[in-house]
Write a structure and sequence with these properties.
The protein has about 475 residues and is of the alpha/beta class. The chain contains 15 helices and 21 strands. It folds into two domains: about 250 residues, Aldehyde Dehydrogenase, Chain A, domain 1; about 180 residues, Aldehyde Dehydrogenase, Chain A, domain 2. The protein binds nicotinamide-adenine-dinucleotide.
């Protein structure tokens, strides 16, 4: 059992803590400080003071600092992976915590190498016009529980790289790895540049306080649609800049020309990465009626070979659902779907928070497992007869994060991709994000993008200098 306090300026005054539960065992994984609004104010004041000098650093200095942070993550990767597994539940292996920390290092490294040089818009006898990108100030980062370290890095590194300072608030369900990450980062950064604040969200909701805080200039948020909407409302008063990465209900469309067995592995990991607790996981699968049974059978067959168990076991490839609320949601949606469709695998809750990989066919739009974001290991299959109908059903959802098309005909697949209402579309794969490709949702899935140059610009204000 661990008690982490973080090396934030706000951490020192904290006496109270809350327990963090290991979802694999139900045991206490550690304790985190239960901070107050006063602690948040202290962290923001410290970040604001640090901004005075941090924002004046040269591009080379910022790049060097981010490179040092990247090296620190790589140096501590084993420790961070273990903490993620203990509090999040995902296994060390497979697409689990070691993979997550490897991704954090890769994203940090790539983003460190990006820059936003001055753009000359005009340079002639009438004058010179330059577009400069300036840091916005203190950035408030609010993260969810599914990829605690990877998402923290997605927020922290572009903010630092562009000269901002950061106060990060992890989910109360997974604060330990973020606290340790910030401790590690603070070994190489000046005081106040990055701080972490944690609370159990019960006594005081620090996320809500951050969204209306007058000295936080931008919120970058990853989490559910409902919370993102609340943030947008409370950020209006202070005109904060916002990047909101919210929920998804990604559709996959399988055309009749594929070999079901050949695509089963890709479909499986597209849907069940991190036990389906992934924003851009495939959450609805539309399959042409001529091969719907074969695709369902191939998925169920593939699922049999994937061991599920305690995340700390080297043999596990999938772990438990992270928390009771999510487990109850999956249980409710699956119970309803079982009354309407055919269970091809899984379907019954296991011990504790373990829920087996579940695939249910014979469902349609309007069924809760299709319409709602399940965010767990249950995939509905919907058979269609006409691809126009499939596109319509895929788009008939308020979310628009990702989507995929599965076919041997690349041109046909691309034409369908172009008609899907979502920020990313993959062909013959799903959810494969990368640090050089902007990622974000349309419709209710969010505002703005992360990654690449476009993602970096979200941490800046434009200033045009006319001379
Ligand atoms: P959540 O919205 O419940 O919580 C996210 C964060 O917001 C937590 O840190 C929480 O403490 C904080 N919070 C709670 N109330 C708040 C308030 N009133 N104001 C400000 N912050 C508040 O989400 P979750 O359950 O942790 O995560 C799952 C959701 O996140 C899913 O919907 C998933 O699709 C989404 N998600 C999206 C992306 C993406 O990139 N689009 C990535 C990962 C997860």
């Amino acid at each position: 059992m661990r008690r982490l306090t973080g090396k934030s300026d706000a951490g020192d005054s904290v006496g109270d803590t809350f327990a963090v539960i290991n979802p694999s065992t139900g045991a206490v994984a550690g304790h985190a400080p239960n901070m107050t609004g006063a602690d948040l104010n202290a962290a923001v004041a410290s970040a604001k003071a640090a901004f005075e000098t941090w924002s004046l650093k040269s591009d080379e200095e910022l790049q060097a600092a981010c490179a040092s942070v990247t090296a620190k993550i790589e140096e501590h990767s084993a420790e961070l992976a273990e903490l993620v597994t203990l509090e999040q539940g995902k296994p060390l292996n497979g697409l689990g915590s070691r993979w997550e920390i490897g991704g954090a290092g890769a994203w940090a490294g790539y983003t460190t190498g990006l820059s936003l040089p001055v753009k000359v818009l005009q340079d002639n006898e009438e004058g010179r016009v330059e577009l400069h990108r300036k840091p916005v100030g203190v950035v408030g980062s609010i993260t969810p529980w599914n990829f605690p370290v990877l998402i923290a890095i997605w927020h922290i590194i572009p903010a630092l790289r562009t000269g901002n300072t950061v106060v990060i608030k992890p989910s109360p369900l997974t604060p330990l790895s973020t606290i340790r990450l910030v401790e590690i980062i603070n070994d190489v950064l000046p005081k106040g540049v990055v701080s972490v604040v944690t609370s159990d969200d019960k006594s005081e909701n620090l996320g809500a306080l951050m969204s209306s805080h007058p000295d936080i200039r931008k919120i970058v948020f990853t989490g559910s649609c409902g919370t993102g909407q609340k943030i947008m409302r409370s950020a209006a008063e202070t005109m904060k800049r916002l990047t909101l990465e919210m929920g998804g209900n990604d559709a996959g469309i399988v055309l009749p020309d594929v070999d079901p067995k050949a695509i089963a592995e890709g479909l499986f990991w597209g849907a069940f990465i991190n036990n389906g607790q992934t924003c851009a996981a495939m959450k609805r699968l539309y399959v042409h009626e001529s091969i719907a049974d074969e695709v369902g059978a191939a998925l169920a067959e593939f699922a049999k070979a994937i061991p599920m168990g305690d995340g700390m076991s080297e043999d596990s490839i999938l772990g438990p659902v992270q928390n009771q609320m999510q487990f109850d949601k999956v249980t409710r949606l699956v119970a309803d779907a079982k009354t309407k469709g055919k269970v091809l695998c899984g379907g019954e809750a296991g011990d504790g928070l373990f829920f087996p990989v579940t695939v249910i066919s014979g469902l349609s739009n309007g069924d809760p497992l299709v319409d709602e974001e399940q965010f767990g290991p249950a995939l509905p299959i919907i058979a269609y007869s006409d691809v126009e109908e499939a596109i319509k059903m895929a788009n008939d959802n308020p979310n628009g994060l990702g989507g995929s098309v599965w076919s041997n005909d690349l041109d046909a697949a691309k034409k369908i991709a172009a008609r899907m209402e979502c920020g990313s579309v993959w062909i013959n794969k799903h959810g494969m994000i990368q640090p050089n490709a902007p990622f974000g949702g349309v419709k209710s899935s969010g505002l703005g993008v992360e990654f690449g140059e476009e993602g970096l610009t979200e941490y800046t204000d434009i200033q045009v200098i006319f001379s």
